[in-house]
Amino acid sequence: MATPPLIVRAHAKVNLDFRILGARSDGYHEVSTVLQSLALGDEIELHEREGPFTLTCDEPSVAADATNLVWRAAARLGAALGLSLDGLAVGLRKRIPARAGLGGGSADAGAILRLLAQRWRVAPDDPVLPGVAGELGADVPFFLVGGTALATGRGDLIQPLADLPEHQVLVVLPPFGISTQDAYTWLDAASIPPHEDASDARAEGRAYALPELVGPTFRLGSSTAGPAWSRLLPQLRNDLEAIVTARHPEIGTAVGALRAAGALLAIMTGSGSAVVGLFRADADMEEACRSLGPTVSRPGWRLLRTKTIGRQTYEASLLAETS
Prior knowledge:
By secondary structure, the protein is α+β, with helices and mostly antiparallel strands. The protein has 2 domains: 6-161 and 311-322, Ribosomal Protein S5, domain 2; 168-307, 2-Layer Sandwich (Alpha-Beta Plaits). Helices cover 32% and strands 25% of the residues. It is built from 11 helices and 11 strands. Strands 1, 2, 3, 4, 5, 6 and 11 form a 7-stranded mixed beta sheet that branches. Strands 8-9-7-10 form a 4-stranded antiparallel beta sheet. Helix 1 (69-81) runs parallel beside helix 2 (104-119), helix 1 (69-81) packs antiparallel against helix 3 and helix 7 (241-247) packs across helix 8 (249-260). The chain is globular and about 55 Å long. Residues 196-224 have low confidence and may be disordered.
């Protein structure tokens, strides 16, 4: 009898806040961003079969070869542990839109790292996992942790935060994607000076813009999470949003429409192109869907309904199940 496949979920993320603190000498940018996991996610299956490692994907536009981040993640972890990928096959079911700022490829990489760690009996807190994740991309280390977290450095230094209370999330998807490289190229061309307090923030390892949320001691505890988040949501922003909107005004239109529809937070996530709105209740989100009709009725526009998830739910989804 064939061994049943192991299955995990690879959850999307949104940036609740995204600050660019300046350019780094290694070619990256110093950032401070609050990341949040969503229920929306891809699905990854790990099969045991004879023969060399293979990867399949149900999305034809996604390369299922050694250039895919899932393949690269598996290969790097195997190399780090001195283990072969032969006899393993991975199936990827894509649900996270690409080039939208939702972290689809990085989410898949983080999920396969955790899945293979279970398969090879590597502890979730083994330093080999964040080490490999950081080599794959700045976003990948977050997907080993999930929930609500502060990311600093290139975005690869992760500090878990008290979970944002559950919110309904409406994702507005334009008919175009935006590459992270393009967004940062536009930012550099704009020659925007770094924030005055960026150097202090880097020195203290904190998000300078969110003094109530985080600091040298990361004071936000579970007992104050609700009130603190309620105060902070209106203050959050994305430093790339204006840069991207200057080239794609539709982004700004979508943000404005979500705010007018009553979103507690309306923001472009990551480098775009997705725009998200947070709502307290499902009824509020459904009302917003109706009011957004003129904005999203144009060809190619889409709405996705999802919700935020906490770290406990995220962790549970990374514990492999059998089909």
